[in-house]
Write a structure and sequence with these properties.
The protein is built from 12 helices and 14 strands. The protein is α/β, with parallel strands linked by helices. The strands form 4 sheets. Strands 3-4-5-6-7-8-9-10 form an 8-stranded parallel barrel, surrounded by 4 helices. The protein has a two-stranded antiparallel ribbon with strand order 1-2. A two-stranded antiparallel sheet has the order 11-14. It is globular and about 55 Å long. The structure holds iron/sulfur cluster (2 copies). The site of one iron/sulfur cluster has 13 residues, from helix 12.
Length: about 325
């Protein structure tokens, strides 16, 4: 495995970050034991030491189960939340500590940030996380974003040391610009010393057919960056290590590996409230005959934001 320092945080991580949205209730819905076994395989077989989760994913129990298999210091855990003031920040931090069963979190992030304005709206939460960082409960603070403006906003927030931006060779999912705009913004922040781990390298599954090119693009454009990728099986872990870390892509591997394209599904008990439509930054959803429908699967990057918005638990990526 190849390791790198995450910007100036002092946190050393593997080239691959295991994105755990795939194992969560929003996608594969693994049991805690199933997920933990897969995470442990990634750690013990391939030395992947970096894991990304979120309060939204509802899978902190997966990491609690992982602690039955490996020691806490064997992995770096990043999570994201929507906290906006001290009370919500405290609640989010206490939740992850309690549910994972740990006394520190490596990277505490704000989820789904759009710009310096949305970050400013979370000012109190950021201050609270800063205090907890001083106490050693948090090692670094950051945020995730699908926006070019969001990446650039790092300059306005000195507390932020890690960004988790969306980028892929076709620019799928970038809300407010083109791929080139996002590339430039990410390079600028990395040059400033921001820790950066890239999300959606396969565009939420749309680039599975061009997987080698999608990975090659990231190698060439961001040779130093960490790549977060969702995985659901040991064979996916093996293949991603071979291509992302070892730069090998053999015909045999390609034939052995069966990518399953995922689709967003909306259950028929949808009550047509429209919350999911408002939550989707990609304009992939709409209402028809009083029910939510996917207007355009090609726009959906499987971020799960719509699922979070649905109080009826109608939405899943399967
Ligand atoms: S439909 Fe849902 S999962 Fe797809 S992009 Fe929109 S919010 Fe994300
Ligand atoms: S949020 Fe849920 S119930 Fe409301 S329209 Fe969307 S899928 Fe239907």
């Amino acid at each position: 495995m190849q390791f790198t320092n995450l910007g100036t945080t002092g946190i050393r991580v593997s080239k691959i970050c295991f994105g755990s949205l795939t194992t969560s209730r929003l996608q594969k819905n693994f049991s805690a034991e199933e997920a933990a076994a897969l995470f442990a395989y990634a750690i013990l077989k391939h030395q992947i030491n970096f894991f990304d989760t979120a309060e939204l994913y509802g899978n902190y129990a997966h990491f609690r189960a992982l602690l039955d298999l490996v020691k806490r210091e064997e992995f770096v855990l990043s999570t994201k939340c929507y906290a906006y003031d001290r009370a919500t920040a405290k609640a989010s931090l206490e939740k992850v500590l309690r549910e994972v069963g740990t006394d520190y979190i490596d990277i505490m992030m704000l989820h789904e940030q759009e710009s310096e304005h949305t970050l400013r709206g979370h000012r109190e939460a950021i201050e609270y996380f800063g205090e907890q960082k001083q106490k050693g409960v948090i090692r670094a603070i950051g945020y995730s974003t699908h926006f070019v403006r969001g990446v650039k906003a790092a300059e306005t927030m000195p507390e932020m040391k890690v960004i988790h931006p969306l980028i892929n060779r076709r620019g799928i999912g970038i809300v407010d610009g083109e791929r080139l705009d996002m590339e430039q913004a990410i390079h600028e922040q990395m040059d400033r010393g921001m820790g950066c781990y890239l999300m959606k390298p396969l565009g939420g599954g749309h680039l599975l057919e061009e997987y080698p090119q999608a990975i090659s693009y990231l190698h060439e454009e961001f040779p130093e960056a960490v790549i977060a990728i969702g995985m659901q099986s040991k064979i996916e872990v093996d293949l991603n290590v071979r291509s992302i870390v070892d730069h090998e892509w053999t015909k045999t591997e390609q034939e052995r590996f069966h990518f399953q394209e995922k689709k967003l599904k909306i259950a028929d008990w949808c009550v047509g409230c429209g919350r999911c439509v408002e939550a989707c930054q990609q304009n992939a959803l709409g209402l028809q005959d009083g029910k939510a429908v996917v207007l355009d699967q090609s726009k959906c990057v499987r971020c799960g934001y719509c699922a979070k918005a649905c109080k009826e638990f109608c939405i899943k990526v399967v």
